TrEMBL record:
The chain crosses the membrane at residues 16-36, 42-58, 79-102, 127-147, 159-179, 191-220, 240-260. Residues 4-261 form the Heme-copper oxidase subunit III family profile domain. It comes from the Eukaryota. Its main location: membrane. InterPro entries: Cyt_c/ubiquinol_Oxase_su3, Cyt_c_oxase_su3_dom, Cyt_c_oxidase-like_su3, Cyt_c_oxidase_su3-like_sf, Cyt_c_oxidase_su3_a-hlx. This is Cytochrome c oxidase subunit 3. GO terms for molecular function: cytochrome-c oxidase activity. It is found in: Membrane. The keyword Nucleotide-binding does not apply.
Length: 261
């Protein structure tokens, strides 16, 4: 039998991608059911099932890269390109929100009083919670960079400390955003301002939540000694994603909170 050696990773048959896709479909149907019939059972069930399937899927990927040695330099190069393309798609995702914001704010319609913010709407104070959240995310960007440098220098104590600080700052950001939403004098149904504000900042909050979980998993993997100074793409992907979240927030703070408010 002829044996062919190559640097590529031939993925084994796995049920997790199919199950994850089906769970996402069920989650979307659950959202529709929640909006129309006010029932949340299907959505919660789908989200729990999705969490289980993706956890098992990511467990297999970690096993392939860390213990089986199947993520060669060629494979990691492809993973890097895939992650960069994913972040690029996220850039255009948020670009659509900024487009909607500028379309409505630069030429306000008669329905909202021909002014921006619309008549009777009281925007949030830019230099209170939004400014504090900006400082928090900028600080988390510094701490995740510190973690990366510590990883390159094989300083395990500093990696654990800086990564823990990063995802804790992310969790604190989410808490402050929740309190900010409770204090807001307008809702998502208050004209186009409320819609764009809550959709853009809400989706950013979801990305902060995902990024915090991403970094928390990397933090737990550091305790398991899964990374080395030369083989740590999982951590790099998490750091890239977190820096993207930071940059998006700077645009949200500058445009939606400061200039638009």
């Amino acid at each position: 039998m002829l044996t062919i050696f190559h640097p590529y990773h031939i993925v084994s048959v796995s049920p997790w991608p199919l199950l994850s896709a089906l769970n996402i479909l069920l989650a979307m149907l659950g959202l529709i059911k929640m909006f129309l019939l006010a029932g949340v059972d299907l959505f919660y069930l789908a989200m729990i099932s999705l969490l289980v399937s993706v956890t098992l899927w990511w467990r297999d990927v970690i096993r392939e890269s860390t213990f089986h040695g199947e993520h060669t330099l060629t494979v990691m190069s492809g993973l890097m390109i895939g992650m960069l393309l994913f972040i690029l798609s996220e850039v255009f995702f948020f670009l659509s929100f900024f487009w909607a914001f500028f379309h409505s704010s630069l030429s306000p319609s008669l329905e909202i009083g021909s002014i921006w913010p619309p008549t009777g709407l009281i925007p949030l104070d830019t230099f209170q919670v939004p400014l504090l959240n900006t400082v928090i995310l900028l600080g988390s960007g510094v701490s995740v960079t510190w973690a990366h440098q510590s990883l390159l220098n094989s300083n395990n104590y500093n990696i654990k400390l800086s990564l823990m600080l990063t995802w804790l700052l992310g969790a604190y950001f989410l808490f402050l955003q929740y309190m900010e939403y409770k204090m807001a004098m307008f809702s998502i149904s208050d004209s186009v301002f409320g819609s764009v504000f809550f959709v853009s900042t809400g989706f950013h909050g979801i990305h902060v939540m995902i990024g915090s979980l991403f970094l928390m998993v990397m933090w737990l993997r550091v305790f398991q000694m899964h990374f080395s100074s030369s083989h740590h793409f999982g951590f790099e992907a998490a750091a890239w994603y977190w820096h993207f979240v930071d940059v998006v927030w700077l645009f949200l703070f500058s445009v939606v909170y400061w200039w638009g408010g």
